[in-house]
């Protein structure tokens, strides 16, 4: 086998089921935990700046990955002129996702917001087909649209129309889907690899975010916050920063072992699970028949997708005509 063939061989090998399941579970757990911690920091303690919290998460990511590289625990390419070109357009998508995400929640009711956010799933599927040239079975496509149908039913009579709100949330969907798909593309070892994507994305975005935070007065509000000497607040702020790193890492890991689409579906299943938990504890879930039926349809679609995705991964890959021609020409 030539060095070139040896380099290309791993790309054709499907990952075994256990690492894929563990990566998906790790992402779901990190996503769930950071929601709880961020809610405490931003709501219970009334911390005035989500942007500064985001800066803390990016700085933590840079520090952990840089120290890990110095100690030869991980590897990613050293900086050179080609890095910004290889990374583009991820930083722009990250900023767009962050800004539209912060703006979107206040524009619509929670049920309608949940429905529109589910459109991230078919958008991710479409972009994977266009950008990554992936092909999905009819069963997986049907499962995606069952999730969308369930979200519409769950929203019930609250399908209010707000043009500005619709625009902002759908832009957030596009940025989220594109960010996931391009992250999958850039993780190729010939590009930046998993750790390179994480490090340089945070590296290129932390300074512009600090500048935006300073110019808007956001940074000043954060520095004047009264609870910096409160040990419990400080612990949860630092915990949020660490969980921010774990969330970024788990997102990349889940996309690496599975796909950007699977990562998006796991996020949707996580949100449905939170709603189920809210029915039992917390007291802020308002029960209605339509909402309950819609949630169950969403969950059924998500579980069906998970089963079909695992089944598709376990099928042996058949070379296409183009690949056969390529191999024949080599021999």
List the helices and strands and how they pair.
Layout: H1 3-8, H2 17-44, H3 50-70, H4 82-87, H5 90-104, H6 110-117, H7 120-131, H8 138-155, H9 163-186, H10 193-215, H11 218-223, H12 231-257, H13 260-280, H14 289-314, H15 321-330
Helix pairs in contact: 2-12, 2-13, 3-10, 3-12, 5-9, 5-10, 6-8, 7-9, 7-13, 8-14, 9-13, 10-12, 12-13, 13-14
Key descriptive features of the protein:
Sugar phosphate transporter domain-containing protein; 331 residues; 0% strand; disordered N terminus; transmembrane; Sugar_P_trans_dom; transmembrane helix; membrane; single chain; globular; mainly alpha
How would you explain this protein's 3D organization?
The chain is mainly alpha-helical and 331 residues long. Helix content is 76%, strand content 0%. It contains 15 helices and no strands. It has helices at residues 3-8, 17-44, 50-70, 82-87, 90-104, 110-117, 120-131, 138-155, 163-186, 193-215, 218-223, 231-257, 260-280, 289-314, 321-330. Helix 3 packs antiparallel against helix 10, helix 5 (90-104) packs antiparallel against helix 9 and helix 6 packs antiparallel against helix 8 (138-155). The longest helix is centred in the N-terminal third of the chain and has 28 residues, at 17-44. The chain crosses the membrane at residues 21-41, 47-67, 136-157, 163-183, 195-216, 228-248, 260-279, 285-307. This is Sugar phosphate transporter domain-containing protein. Keywords: Membrane, Transmembrane, Transmembrane helix. Pfam families: TPT. It is found in: Membrane.
């Amino acid at each position: 086998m030539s060095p070139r063939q040896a380099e290309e061989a791993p790309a054709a090998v499907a990952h075994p089921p256990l690492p894929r399941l563990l990566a998906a579970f790790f992402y779901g757990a990190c996503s769930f935990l950071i929601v709880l911690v961020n809610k405490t920091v931003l709501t219970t303690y009334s911390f005035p700046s989500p942007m500064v919290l985001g800066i803390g998460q990016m700085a933590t990511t840079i520090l952990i990955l840089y120290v890990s590289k110095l100690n030869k625990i991980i590897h990613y390419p050293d900086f050179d002129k080609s890095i910004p070109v290889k990374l583009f357009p991820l930083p722009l998508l990250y900023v767009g996702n962050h800004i539209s995400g912060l703006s979107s929640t206040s524009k619509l009711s929670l049920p309608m917001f949940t429905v529109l956010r589910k459109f991230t799933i078919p958008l991710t599927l479409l972009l994977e087909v266009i950008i990554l040239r992936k092909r999905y079975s009819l069963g997986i496509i049907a499962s995606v649209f069952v999730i969308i149908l369930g979200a519409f039913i769950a929203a019930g009579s609250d399908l209010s129309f707000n043009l500005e709100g619709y625009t902002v949330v759908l832009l957030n969907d596009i940025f989220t889907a594109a960010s996931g798909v391009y992250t999958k593309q850039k993780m190729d070892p010939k590009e930046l690899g998993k750790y390179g994507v994480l490090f340089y994305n945070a590296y290129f975005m932390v300074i512009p975010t600090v500048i935006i935070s300073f110019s808007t007065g956001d940074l000043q509000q954060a520095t004047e916050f009264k609870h910096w000497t409160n040990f419990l607040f400080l612990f949860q702020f630092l915990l949020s920063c660490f969980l921010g790193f774990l969330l970024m890492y788990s997102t990349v890991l889940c996309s690496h072992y599975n796909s950007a689409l699977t990562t998006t579906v796991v996020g949707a299943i996580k949100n449905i699970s939170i709603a189920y938990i809210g029915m039992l504890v917390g007291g802020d879930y308002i029960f209605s028949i339509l909402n309950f039926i819609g949630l169950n349809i969403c969950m059924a679609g998500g579980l069906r997708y998970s089963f079909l995705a695992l089944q598709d991964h376990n099928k042996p890959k058949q070379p296409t005509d183009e690949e056969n021609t390529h191999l024949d020409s080599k021999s």
